[in-house]
Design goal:
Length: about 200
């Protein structure tokens, strides 16, 4: 559960090459990139999600980088969406992440609350941050607020929400002055955006 890297067996059928083939074969043009921001080593971390079509980014405060905390966060998020009448898979049908051991519990990420697969998880090539450029770029905005080495141990989820609210409210030249929040809300509606 505390593996440093995703075990090889979990990566079978979920490699970056599999990802490229999957999005091509299914004509998918958008996906969610996922990562983890480290505060003080051994302390709290922030799991980040970035929707590549609009750079809308979410952050979830976790007690540690253990796979059990990632799985627990996914369960809570899926429960919240389910209560609101939404399925996680309809918002994030494809997830691309790195090989960090915290993402080892593929079933917790890919399956809905009833154990049915709703999302396809894929892993980047080792040491290739360029495979998920959108989230890496968005992390630079986070680091403008919380430089590397910032300790997250005193953060609350409300603090994290406020930070990402600021990041999502920055207008982007790429989107003709629109913000990631505006584009995500336009795409998915106000209700789902506020659930996040």
């Amino acid at each position: 559960n505390d593996a440093v890297y995703v075990p090889r067996g979990i990566r079978i059928g979920r490699t970056y090459e599999d990802f490229l083939n999957f999005i091509k074969d299914n004509e998918i043009s958008y996906w969610m990139e996922m990562d983890t921001l480290i505060g003080e080593v051994g302390g709290k971390v922030i799991m980040t999600w970035n929707f590549n079509f609009c750079n809308f980014m979410l952050g979830f405060l976790l007690e540690s980088k253990a796979a059990s905390y990632v799985a627990g966060a996914f369960k809570q998020i899926k429960e919240k969406l389910d209560e609101g009448g939404f399925s996680f898979g309809s918002i994030a049908p494809v997830i691309l992440t790195d090989n960090g051991g915290e993402f080892s519990n593929a079933d917790a990420i890919e399956c809905n609350l009833y154990g049915v697969k709703e999302t396809s998880l894929f892993f980047c090539r080792p040491m290739k941050a360029s495979d998920k450029p959108h989230i890496e770029k968005s992390h630079t905005l986070f680091r403008d607020i919380c430089p590397k080495g910032t300790n997250f141990n005193d953060f609350t989820q409300e603090d994290v929400n406020l930070i990402f609210s600021h990041i999502n409210s920055v207008s982007r030249k790429l989107f003709n002055g629109k913000t990631p929040y505006e584009i995500f809300e336009f795409t998915y509606g106000e209700k789902i955006t506020s659930l996040f």
